[in-house]
Amino acid sequence: MANWRSTGFGGAVMMVWALATVPLTVIGILAAMPFLGPRRAFFAVGPMFARGMAWFCHVPFTLTGWERLPEAIRDGRQSVIFMSNHESQLDPPVLVAALPVPAVYIAKQELKYVPFIGWAGWAAGVIFIDRGDRERAIQSIHAAAQQIRGGKNVVIFPEGTRNRTGQMLPFKKGGFALAMDAGVPIVPMATLGGHEVLPPGSLRIRPGRYVVAVGEPVDPAAHADRESLIAAVRGRIEALMAEAREAV
Questions:
Q1: I need a surface site. Which of 10, 145, 182, 228 has the fewest CB within 10 A?
Q2: For residues 105 and 155, is the Cβ–Cβ distance under 8 A?
Q3: Are 78 and 227 contacting, i.e. CB atoms less than 8 angstroms apart?
């Protein structure tokens, strides 16, 4: 069964499947909202996209290291900022499905108005930031910190964009400023497999395995400055990437 997926025809079939199921998933979220509310509807229906992809496209994903986290994080009582490397457009849906607790993304304001994607983001409670206006961006960061202190988990890709080679790019400082403002732990993560399953610049999904490795949390208050915090988190993500390679 996996052989046809490795052909050009199989790649085209999986691409069409993925493009068709995104709007269908969002329609399912919108249909469930009157009964569950926006956030619960998203996290009940949204992860089905990644799970369906894992089945249809033969892209199984596994989560390792979750047991390392304190119980308060594992059961959702302690909000955190998850930080991961970023290799593929599939990273966001895979992480939404793989993480046992609800977590939303911080996204640029423009995505809020993209049909289907923006609607799903609104339902999930995605934090949209206006990067084109410095004052508004700062206000958005402070508002995001309040939401995180209020119990919302957030996923951030500190590279700021997908890397093209599988090697991490320099980290942006904004996510770390947010973590220090919110005063919550950073949970480092590494995803491995996305660069092969859906390479940058390609729409063709290839069969392959995704591994999501989770590391022990980093306390921003334990670091004297932002640079020290960035170095600590980057070091842990690099170690997790090496660990994930061994798990494949």
A1: 228
A2: yes
A3: no
